[in-house]
Design brief:
The chain is mainly α. The chain is 84% helix and 0% strand.
């Protein structure tokens, strides 16, 4: 994976982590929106670490 793409992926991961942490403060951990963000983060992390 190109370094630039990996850096962009890392920035997206950090943004999602921030959003997920904020959602976790105001929503139940089982709410659909929070679960979807968590799944998106999992996917991005898998992409990042498999490259």
């Amino acid at each position: 994976m190109k370094e630039n793409h990996k850096n962009n992926l890392l920035k997206t991961i950090e943004k999602l982590r921030y959003e997920l942490n904020n959602l976790g403060k105001t929503k139940k951990l089982t709410e659909r929106q929070l679960v979807q963000k968590s799944q998106q983060l999992d996917t991005l992390l898998n992409m990042y670490y498999s490259s």
